[in-house]
Amino acid sequence: MAVDLCLVLLPCWGITDIPLTLSALSSRLRGHGVPLKVFDFNVELYHLLSQERPWWDISRGLDLWEQESFIDRFWKENLPVIETLIDDALEPEPRWVGFSLFVSNRLLTERFARRLKEKAPSAKIVFGGPEVGAIEDLQGYADRHPFIDHLVVGEGEETLPALLRGQETRRIVANMDGVRDLDSLPLQDFSDYDFALYKDVYAFPTYSSRGCPNACIYCTERNFAGRFRIRSAERLFEDVQRQKTLRPDLNMFRLHESTSNGSVPQLERFCDLMAGASLGLRWAINGAIMRREMNDRICAKLARAGCRFINYGLETPSHKVLAAVGKRLSAGTNFDRVVRSTHDAGIEVALNVMFGLPGETEADFQEQLDFLRRNHRHISTIAPSLWFCYFPKGSEGARHPGKHGIDLEMGPLYWRSPHGTNDYLVRMERFVRYTDLMQELGVKSLFGFPALPNRRELAAAYCHELVRRGHLSAEEARGRLGEMRLLDMKPARGENMLRSLLRKIIYAVAPAAVHNAVSEIARARLLERRLNKLLKERGARQRYSDG
Fold this sequence. Notes:
With 547 residues, the chain is α/β, with parallel strands linked by helices. It folds into two domains: 5-182, Rossmann fold (3-Layer(aba) Sandwich); 202-453, tm_1862 like domain (pyruvate-formate lyase- activating enzyme), CATH 3.80.30.20. The chain is built from 21 helices and 15 strands.
């Protein structure tokens, strides 16, 4: 049966939960009466290509999906499987094919879409997602990719129906207002997905807001999500309750958004509804602001309502630095108190931290280390930024670097302060010192051990770039690396060999032990689609012969 639209997600993206962006968009489009199909080829390829699975692990696949050489190899070696997925997307004869674009899947998505267009020239291709909002010269990007018919900046719930109906004809469409009333959106529809394909089989994603009330200068979310909007506690609860009714075996949900506590009164109201319903659901907050309102009372309410995990975007405990980078809702917060209130309520505490934010001094960094020493017993996991501090295109820092003391002459990753007191190697050294302290104190890293296994190569690549641009001589570069004594520190040989062996065993055994049954499901689904296609073709030939 022909459909108007197919929605497609390609690697690399998370595989723990069903992708929230696709499920929210498909639910809205069906409400508009749009016949569609959804393909999460990201999770399917993870299971179908067992030899490639390590590259979905951020500690091993960091930045690889953004490298042409890696995508070249991945495409060539897996082309037969990729071609079958392209055929799957075209099997329902869609008039339109929409792709969700992220920085981590842009290169593969471009190749996939180009090949799909070659096989079905009449199908209209539309790109949307956060990465579209991060592209500065969209017209130039469109000109370089003629197979893309439309680029959508911002939310697609209203833009896509207008495109499908011919009410919108522009090639580049910006909708920065977004859906004003989030309660007007339909409850989520997960009927397109096989829960068994995801790591957390009994969990589902949801959301309480869109956008972010902060104005962090390193973030591009406002380019895509627009202004901050809240979903009412009642509507969120209705959604959660409905999913549990449809799937009684579900036992967990996660709030997937930048800021789940942007409105603490709404969060508190949601807790009251959850505590009074006894749904038997645990839940996690994946993005929360460190703010003074997260006190003992609120944390106790969260725990009674089933919340078991909160990930806070701390970045740094220096109020001076946070104010300079626009994290305004954290002003005046006692960060030690928030961590301890959350932990004492029985909720796991995770932190995001960054290194070398503009204006950060060695004294500020010492404050970061002291905070970890004081609070490590109350913290379960830390995600130390593997980019240290980075200013992507479209961020406030990239748009107005001089205003924020940022010299971007060497790019968004290799930026430095005007006086050279903060550069890539300074930030790397602080990262190493911080993660070494984490290891000493027994605090887990989100990315495993070691968190930065290729630090010598990264430092050498940066110094090579300095030499290439004429900022340093080769001798000066070697001296600079020599000064970075922490880069030469490594575990004792026995410990290093043991950890290396354990990692090899984990990567060799875990996919077979954990995912083989699921992989068989994925392969069976693929074979079933192949068989259905053959039967359909055979039936068509038979009807033609009978005629």
